[in-house]
Design goal:
The complex is a heterodimer of chains A (468) and B (291).
Chain A (H helix, E strand, L loop, with lengths): L1 H23 L5 E2 L3 E8 L4 E8 L2 E2 L19 E7 L6 H14 L4 E7 L3 H11 L5 E5 L4 H6 L13 H4 L4 H4 L11 E2 L6 E5 H4 L16 H12 L12 H9 L16 H16 L4 H4 L4 H9 L5 E4 L4 H7 L1 H4 L2 E5 L13 E5 L6 H11 L2 H10 L13 H4 L10 H9 L11 H17 L4 H13 L4
Parallel strand pairs in A: 5-6, 5-7
Antiparallel strand pairs in A: 1-4, 2-3, 7-12, 8-12, 9-10, 9-11
Helix pairs in contact in A: 10-19, 12-13, 19-20
Chain B lengths: L7 H27 L2 E2 L7 E2 L3 H8 L1 H13 L2 H16 L6 H14 L1 H11 L5 H8 L13 H29 L3 H9 L4 H12 L1 H16 L3 H7 L12 H11 L3 H32 L1
Antiparallel strand pairs in B: 1-2
Classes of the chains: A alpha+beta (468), B mainly alpha (291).
């Protein structure tokens, strides 16, 4: 009796341990056909051999996380991550993505901070203090990547990232802000260059949305019509921190000679580009404070007040208009931004770079790549009207669904537009100083009656002194 | 009787001296060193000798900024006159006069950044100033106030005066209340009217306060930044019309990452303000002595 009880106990133990093992080991347990097992039970005073058939579950080694594409990530890495103006609106998205990142790369701690108006000052101070973040969200459109990369502060990525990972991104976006042909950023979320239309003002001109200029050179005529018919001024902004780029995209200007020994932004193309703005200022059809402000929010705020017919921005900022002036939201329209003479519709918006001095290079690369991978970008696109820099993301039905709100109006053509983004501005030495010189002389042409040709020639003469 | 040396006062002074050494003396020496280097803040400084000073001497923008800073000194006499007038007005035993004193002081505690932003919104093309002037028929179309180079510096100066008048008013009010009443009685007996009383009694009695206010307000005027930045942003006004020495220093250091050049500007400003303060004090004190 005792022996039978003991045997029964052993049998139940084996069955229970098999069940527990099957439920606690993830992700997949594979049941294999029952195999007869022989259990030898020994008890005093006799030995009884019994055959027991049981189901054994075998759990194979867990599959690698498909999002973990960077190898040799440092265990127990602690990395800092700075984003630009994403909090508090996107706090949950960032935290959720970091949590997913930790599933793909366990053991890595991410300390996330969001910086806003003082981002640049904070970042420069942190580099000076030696405690800059490991992973940094930088504006590609404002030229921040090349600014920091040219000073050796960012990690070059071309030889660190496998080709299979590079192939995840649109080539035009991967090859942006190059320094001597080398890339320093993972392309992150993109905007679509559109113009927001305020129908309350625009419709007074008698024009329709279809009449909105397709080419940048037709904008001055529209501004004249708006001023004449409505009395309002155009809300146009010069990219005062990077006039060279604006000149290249809008005016198809070649800013520097092939051999890099002299600047050439006083060419006929450059003069024609500048003359358009001079004419608009003389005609009084543009708001001068918006024209030369360095803050995009100034122009957006003017549009949000309802006093401007249009404003160049991205669909992602329609939420700001809706928040600050809900009454205007119902009168909004969206058109693709006019294309400049270069024929290139735009360049990248945001990227994520890695600090060249990071103590955890692979963990930092992993985080930067994770936030920019197709799944992360797709999930971000579902929250706000930004667009992925990865072709695979657009395969999701989200992008083929018909737009339901004005914020989604760019969805149908987003992939096509983003795939054509390209950085056509050559590497400019002492870029910040050259832009400062150019801005000064452009202002002379706009506001001080200096002829455009003379202003640009003076700027070239002064800028050439910076070259060796 | 020989005085016994006591360590106690020096021990009490030590924390303040340490703080001054860390936050004042060390930065001055550090800036002096950086003024001889090519330094971008994010990379280590490289010694270049006197090149920054040579650049400064030939830089037209620096001289234009310095000229603007000297023009900005006009706020000093305006502040002194307005503050004295306000102090005389509120130095009366009237019911509710305390409320007026508080009202005049509110701009001082409001913060220059917040007030500057409010002024920028008021002066905007679609701001309240244009709205009022258009409704009164004074303007036919909105004026872009901050886009007029000739008006940039005057608006900054007006903002400085508006922010500071309450503070200096309190200093002069305290000074007025220290002037013996008998002097006013004597002036009345001599047949002085109100205006003469204040000219011959109040103003001479406020000489120490005038000296003090002249020095600190002129130093503040030479170092103005907040008003220019809040009204014009990092552009500094169209055609550099709002550029002051400190604004240009900030641009060089934090927009163009030329901390070495900015340090040279800072050293030049240090010499200028030191010379100015010493001259100011000597002239005003000489006026006191001749009395």
């Amino acid at each position: 009796m005792r022996t039978k009880l003991f045997t029964l106990f052993l049998l139940v133990s084996v069955l229970i341990s098999g069940c527990v093992t099957a439920t606690t080991q993830a992700p997949i347990a594979t049941a294999i056909p029952p195999t007869p097992q022989t259990i030898v039970v020994t008890s005093v005073p006799q030995t009884i051999v019994e055959t027991v058939i049981s189901e054994v579950l075998v759990t194979p080694t867990p599959l690698p996380n498909p999002e973990a594409v960077i190898q040799s990530v440092e265990p127990d890495a602690v990395i800092g991550f700075w984003t630009f103006w994403l909090s508090p609106t996107f706090d949950q998205y960032i935290k959720d993505t970091i949590a997913r990142f930790n599933e793909a790369y366990p053991g890595v701690t991410v300390n996330w901070e969001d910086h806003q108006a003082t981002f640049q000052d904070d970042l420069k101070a942190s580099f000076a203090a030696g405690n800059a973040p490991d992973v940094i969200n930088l504006s590609v459109s404002e030229g921040w990547v090349s600014d920091y990369a040219s000073q050796g502060l960012l990690m070059p990525l071309d030889d660190k990232v496998p080709q299979s990972v590079k192939d995840l991104y649109f080539p035009g976006l991967w090859n942006e802000q190059l320094i001597n042909g080398v890339n320093f950023q993972f392309p992150w979320y993109q905007g679509i260059n559109v113009y927001l239309i305020n129908h309350q003002v625009y419709d007074q001109t008698g024009l329709t949305i279809d009449d909105f200029p397709k080419n940048w050179t037709d904008l001055p005529a529209l501004c004249a019509t708006i001023k004449e018919k409505t009395g309002t001024l155009c809300d146009i902004r010069l990219t005062v921190n990077d006039l060279i780029s604006q000149m290249v995209y809008e005016g198809n200007v070649k800013p520097i000679s092939e051999d890099g020994t002299s600047f050439t932004f006083d060419s006929a193309d450059a003069v024609a580009w500048l003359q358009q703005y001079v004419d608009m200022v003389k005609a009084g059809t543009v708001d001068k404070t918006v024209l030369v402000t360095d803050q995009d929010r100034v122009g957006l705020d003017l549009f949000t007040t309802g006093k401007a017919a249009f404003y160049a921005t991205g669909p992602n900022l329609i939420r700001e208009v809706r928040k600050n002036n809900p009454g205007l939201y119902g009168y909004l329209g969206v058109v693709p931004a006019p294309v400049g003479k270069s024929g290139v519709i735009g360049k990248g918006l945001m990227g994520i770079s890695v600090n060249a001095q990071t103590k955890f290079p692979n963990a930092s690369l992993a985080l930067a790549q994770f936030f920019t991978n197709p799944k992360s970008m797709l999930e971000f696109s579902k929250i706000v009207a930004i667009y992925p820099s990865t072709p695979d993301s657009y395969a999701d039905p989200f992008f083929s669904a018909a737009p339901v709100a004005i914020e989604d109006s760019a969805k149908p053509f987003a992939e096509d537009a983003v795939s054509k983004y390209a950085d056509i501005v050559p590497t400019i030495p002492h870029k910040a100083d050259v832009n400062a010189i150019l801005l000064r002389h452009v202002q002379d042409a706009l506001f001080n009656n200096v002829p455009a040709q003379q202003a640009l020639t003076d700027a070239v003469t002064e800028a050439n002194q910076l070259l060796p | 009787m020989t005085k016994k040396f006591s360590l106690t006062p020096y021990l009490f002074l030590t924390p303040a001296l340490v703080a001054i050494a860390i936050f004042v003396v060390y930065p001055i020496f550090a800036v002096f060193y950086y003024s001889f280097t090519d330094y971008s803040i994010v990379t280590p400084p490289v010694w270049i000798g006197l090149k920054n000073y040579s650049w400064l001497i030939h830089d037209t923008i620096f001289w234009r900024s310095l000229a603007h800073s000297f023009v900005y000194l006009l706020v000093t006499p305006i502040l002194i006159v307005l503050s004295i007038i306000l102090a005389i007005v509120v130095n009366r035993k009237l019911p509710g006069i305390q409320a007026f004193r508080a009202l005049f002081f509110i701009p001082v505690i409001s913060g220059s950044i917040a007030v500057g932003i409010a002024w920028r919104l008021m002066l905007d093309t679609n701001g309240i100033i244009n709205a009022i002037l258009l409704s009164l028929g004074i303007l036919k179309e909105p004026m872009q106030w901050l886009a007029e180079p000739a008006l940039t510096l005057p608006f900054c100066m007006a903002l400085t005066i508006w922010l500071g008048v309450g503070y200096y008013m309190m200093i002069f009010l305290a000074g007025l209340q220290n002037i013996p009443e008998e002097l006013y009685d004597a002036a009345m007996l001599d047949g002085c009217n109100s205006w003469q009383k204040h000219w011959h009694v109040s103003i001479p009695g406020l000489r120490p306060q005038i000296t003090f206010v002249a020095v600190i307000s002129s130093l503040a005027a030479l170092q103005v930044f907040n008003e220019v930045f809040t009204l014009t942003g990092s552009l500094g006004g169209i055609l550099q019309s709002g550029y002051t020495v400190v604004f240009y220093l900030w641009q060089q250091a934090f927009r163009l990452s030329h901390a070495g050049k900015a340090s040279a500007i800072a050293m030049a400003l240090l010499v200028i303000t030191l010379a100015f303060s010493i001259t100011n004090i000597r002239l005003l004190e000489r006026g006191t002595e001749t009395d």
